[in-house]
Specification:
The chain is an alpha/beta fold and 395 residues long. The protein has 2 domains: 247 residues, 3-Layer(bba) Sandwich (FAD/NAD(P)-binding domain); 147 residues, D-Amino Acid Oxidase, subunit A, domain 2 (D-Amino Acid Oxidase, Chain A, domain 2, 2-Layer Sandwich), CATH 3.30.9. Helix content is 27%, strand content 25%. The chain contains 8 helices and 19 strands. Strands 5-6-4-14-15-16-13-17 form an 8-stranded mixed beta sheet. The protein has a 6-stranded mixed beta sheet with strand order 8-2-1-12-19-18, with helices on one face. Strands 9-10-11 form a 3-stranded antiparallel beta sheet, with no helix packed on it. 51% of the residues are buried. It binds glycine. The site of glycine (GLY) has 8 residues, from loops.
Length: 395
């Protein structure tokens, strides 16, 4: 806890996605007074936020893009923290559908196979654990994969959780720890006095706080009162998805599978989540025929057994994209205003490191080393502090 506090700070969290709720839960459990505000019902389609729309993959390796070595380190750190996070959250808030079968990336053509060989070399060069499989070996693991599957990589460390179970588990854990969640309470403004955040204005009134955490996903740059240079440079990156009903007693897949143009994520209740488009369309709502066609065709090529299965649902959501596709974690130049957003494709995976980084900053006054490269000041001229210089509260 920063020296300026004689008691644990009162914290207002803007945004009830997994990061906002996770930070709030840990702070409440540590004895802070915590209030989370969200403009909608959390974890429902009422808000097409990434926490609800996501596939829940903990896919540090499958999501690893060339040139993203720094982000890979953060993703791996978070992946290492997930098993303990699951144990703590399930004890506090109930089941979250964690599965550890791993992830298969499959090749359907000779080009795909060559690409997989290069990918395997790149990942092994970083010491990542990979199993290279023939098509037959891949089908031995997942018999419903198409005969056209020529080769596959297996990433044993890329697991999954059911994000639609994580949100309610976090809500229960937060309540059990004494935190408060205010739904349908839009934050209209963060009030600053002398360069220090002092309160948030919501559709329910003014709420004073010692610390404000801005964790509003793709909407994080839309809150009034935050100076221009401290507005997180996030934009919505739209993703369309759908779900198909498998027989839960005889699912078509057990591993998460990535095939060209698509990923397939089997849930224990029989849902097969299929995603996702990546679209720069602002906050344009809705699914499109082209989006669904592309996903279904790519899924059917890898897993033709979906042909006769029922479509359960389709939806869209908005990833909070940042200029370098990596999150913004830490202080702003407004004292006592912290930022946790910009997680782009990795919001669920990065939940444990996000929670640990922001809680460490609030409770100990220090941004952990793993989070320093993701300081929000990397995009602007805000002073780059790794520890909080929390102004004392006095409300
Ligand atoms: N992490 C999966 C996606 O963003 O589509």
């Amino acid at each position: 806890m920063p020296a300026s506090y004689s008691k644990k700070p009162a914290v207002a969290v803007v945004g009830g996605g997994v990061c906002g709720l996770g930070i709030a839960w840990r702070l409440a459990a540590a004895g802070c007074e915590v209030d989370v505000f969200d403009r909608a019902e959390v974890g429902t389609p009422a808000s097409p936020a990434a926490s609800w729309a996501a596939a829940g993959m903990l896919a540090a390796q499958a999501e690893y893009e060339p040139g993203e070595d720094g982000l890979l380190g953060l993703c791996r750190e978070s992946q290492r923290r997930w098993p303990a996070f699951v144990r703590d959250l399930e004890a506090a808030g109930g089941a979250i559908g964690y599965r550890d079968e791993g992830t298969l990336v499959v090749a359907l053509t000779r080009d795909d196979t060559t690409r997989l060989h290069h990918e395997a070399e790149r990942q092994r060069a970083h010491g990542l654990e990979i199993q290279s499989l023939s098509g037959a070996e891949a089908r031995h693991l997942e018999p419903w994969l198409a005969p056209a599957v020529q080769a596959a990589l297996r990433y044993p460390g890329d697991h999954q959780v059911d994000n639609r179970m994580v949100v309610p588990a976090l809500v229960r854990a937060l309540a059990a720890a004494g935190g408060r969640l205010h739904q349908n309470a839009a934050i209209t403004r963060i009030d600053t006095v002398g360069g220090t955040a002092r309160s948030v204005q919501t559709s329910h009134g003014r709420h004073p706080a010692d610390v404000v955490v801005l964790a509003a996903g793709a909407w994080s740059n839309q809150i009034d009162g935050v100076p221009e240079r401290d507005r997180p440079p996030v934009r919505p990156v739209k993703g369309q998805m759908l779900a198909i009903r498998m027989n839960p007693a005889a699912p078509l897949l057990n591993h998460v599978v990535w095939a060209p143009g698509v990923y397939l994520v089997p849930r224990r209740d029989g849902r097969l989540v299929i995603g996702a488009t990546v679209e720069e369309r602002g906050f344009e709502p809705g699914t499109t025929a082209g989006g669904m066609l592309g996903l279904l065709h790519a899924a059917w090529r890898a897993l033709p057994g979906i042909q006769e299965l029922a479509i359960l649902d389709s939806w869209w959501g908005f990833r909070p994209g940042s200029p370098d596709d990596a999150p913004l974690l830490g202080p702003s130049s407004v004292a006592n205003l912290l930022v946790a957003t910009g997680h782009h494709r990795n919001g669920i995976l990065l939940l444990p490191v996000t929670v640990d980084a922001i809680c460490s900053l609030i409770l100990d006054g220090t941004l952990p080393g793993f989070a320093v490269p993701f300081h929000p000041a990397r995009f602007g001229d805000a002073p780059c502090r790794t520890s909080t210089s929390m102004a004392s509260a006095g409300h």
